[in-house]
């Protein structure tokens, strides 16, 4: 029940922030630490004409961090500790993405490539694939290649 409430809270917040209902998706796939979140926040995305404010970001690590649900461990940063709750946060991310798609909301989904391939069919029409890479530099190069051709 707590997971469903988290999803509903995040959807309500997205609605209040004016996330668009254009059925567009940005799927950011890569290994953990590859720079998917940084790429989404980079100027390269804006240069492509993408208004990030029109998208609900679905990111397992951010979901748990924003709810204060990442356990604290001596010697570990919050993102390092997030690995201990990643499976649950991934489940919540999937629930959030499915509900957002059912509501025709635009989403920017930060996931591993394994997850991207598994969930791609369930996403319907995908407007843009932003990044597949192992590091931020590779991601930015791919964005520029995609933009320039």
Question: What order do the helices and strands come in, and which of them pair?
Answer:
Elements: H1 2-16, E1 25-30, H2 36-41, H3 43-47, E2 56-58, H4 60-66, H5 78-81, H6 86-102, E3 107-111, H7 113-119, E4 128-133, H8 136-148
Parallel strand pairs: 1-3, 1-4, 2-3
Helix pairs in contact: 1-6, 4-6
Topology pattern, helix = H, strand = E: HEHHEHHHEHEH
Instruction: Say what oligomer this is.
Output: single chain
- The helix tally amounts to 8
* Large-scale geometry: globular
Structural class call reads alpha/beta
Radius of gyration: 15 Å
Head-to-tail CA distance between termini: 46 Å
Strand order of the largest sheet: 2-3-1-4
Question: Which residues form runs of ≥5 with pLDDT under 50?
Answer: 122-135
Query: Considering DSSP H and I runs of 4 or more, what fraction of the residues is helical?
Result: 40-55%
Number of strands: 4
Largest sheet: 4 strands, parallel
Q: How many discrete domains? A: 1
Mean pLDDT: 75
- Kindly estimate the percentage of residues that lie in beta strands according to DSSP: 5-15%
Polypeptide structure, described:
By secondary structure, the protein is α/β, with parallel strands linked by helices. Helix content is 50%, strand content 13%. Strands 2-3-1-4 form a four-stranded parallel β-sheet, sandwiched between helices. α1 crosses α6. The N and C termini lie far apart (46 Å). About 9% of the residues have low confidence.
């Amino acid at each position: 029940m707590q997971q469903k409430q988290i999803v509903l809270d995040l959807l309500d917040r997205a609605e209040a922030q004016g996330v668009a209902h254009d059925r567009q998706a940005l799927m950011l796939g890569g290994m953990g630490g590859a720079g998917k979140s940084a790429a989404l926040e980079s100027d390269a995305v804006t240069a492509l004409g993408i208004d990030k404010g029109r998208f609900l970001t679905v990111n397992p690590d951010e979901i748990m961090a924003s709810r204060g649900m990442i356990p604290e461990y001596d010697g570990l940063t919050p993102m390092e500790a997030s690995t201990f709750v990643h499976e649950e946060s991934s489940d919540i991310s999937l629930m959030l993405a499915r509900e957002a798609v059912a509501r025709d909301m635009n989403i920017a989904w930060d996931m591993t490539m394994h997850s991207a391939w598994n969930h791609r069919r369930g996403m319907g029409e995908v407007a843009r694939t932003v990044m597949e890479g192992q590091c931020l530099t590779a991601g930015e190069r791919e964005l520029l290649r995609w933009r320039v051709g």
